[in-house]
Specification:
- This protein is α/β, with parallel strands linked by helices.
- The protein has one domain: Orthogonal Bundle (Phenylalanine Hydroxylase), CATH 1.10.800.10.
- 49% of the residues lie in helices and 10% in strands.
- It contains twelve helices and six strands.
- A four-stranded mixed sheet has the order 4-3-6-5. A two-stranded parallel sheet has the order 1-2.
- Helix 2 packs across helix 5, helix 6 runs antiparallel to helix 7 and helix 6 packs across helix 12.
- The N terminus is likely disordered.
């Protein structure tokens, strides 16, 4: 569920996440698929410029994601895993909450094994591999983000046991997916949903029609979101170390309090 867009699911059964993993079969991607990736990559890098946090830009370089064509996950993992212990796996599409959280807890990030068509460049109902790889994976090369995302997975597993996965979903949405950041005094993109969105990143940074609030786990946990439209509210953190420290500090006791707040 927690890959953008986050969609509620009633499946909270104990998850065996490996059952959801499929072979990427990189050779099945067509020339058109590779062309779509290249168009999306070039367009998004140009649109973002330096208006995204430094760990993301560093990750693009470290993982060599500028290489033309859809990334081969085996090659990507060979660069990512030695740095932070994270690896990517191919999945057919959105996975249930329990599976997603279990994957994060094991430092595994699921990648939808399909890419949008040339007619869907600007919008897609379900996250594809461009969102999953371009939006999320560069940040996973940073040790602070790597630790935080694993903690989110553990929190999600605990929240499922309390019947309160929505609490962790809201924290995740307002930080990992659609968070903003204050870096060297400048407002920048932090979240993967914004990093991979051609239209919304400019609105999040520049529009006077949206609300921006300082990030805090209590406020984020209490703030709903709508995954079917551009967001009216964005939370602004003070950098990766700040948001990671705040989320990593959530323990079982605090999670229970957030769930009942």
């Amino acid at each position: 569920m927690l890959q953008t867009p986050i969609r509620p699911t009633s499946d909270t059964r104990p998850a065996h996440w490996r059952d959801y993993v499929i072979a990427q079969d990189w050779s099945h991607f067509t020339a058109e698929d590779h062309r779509v990736w290249d168009i999306l990559f070039e367009r998004q890098v140009s649109a973002l410029g330096d208006r995204i946090v430094r760990p993301f830009l560093d990750g693009l370089d470290l993982l060599r994601l500028s290489h033309p064509g859809v990334p081969d996950l085996e090659e990507l993992n060979a660069r990512l895993e030695p740095r932070t212990g994270w690896r990517t796996v191919a999945v057919p599409g959105l996975v249930p909450d329990a599976v997603f959280f279990a994957m994060l807890a094991d430092r595994v990030f699921p990648i939808g094994n399909f890419i949008r068509t040339i007619d869907q460049l600007d919008y897609l109902d379900e996250p594809d591999l461009f969102h999953d790889i371009f939006g999320h994976v560069p940040m996973l090369s940073d040790p602070a983000m790597a630790r935080m995302m694993q903690h989110v997975g553990r929190l999600g597993c605990a929240a499922l046991g309390l019947g309160q996965s929505a609490v962790v979903a809201r924290i995740y949405w307002h930080s990992v997916e659609f968070g903003l950041s204050r870096e060297n005094g400048e407002l920048k993109i932090f979240g993967a949903g914004l990093a991979s969105s051609f239209g919304e990143q400019a609105i999040a940074l520049d529009s006077d029609a949206v609300e921006r609030r300082p990030f805090g786990v209590k406020a984020a946990a209490a703030s709903d979101y709508d995954n079917d439209r551009m967001q009216p509210l964005y939370f602004v953190n003070d950098g990766l170390e700040h948001v990671a420290a705040a989320i990593n500090a959530i323990d079982a006791e605090q999670l229970a309090r957030l769930a009942t707040a």
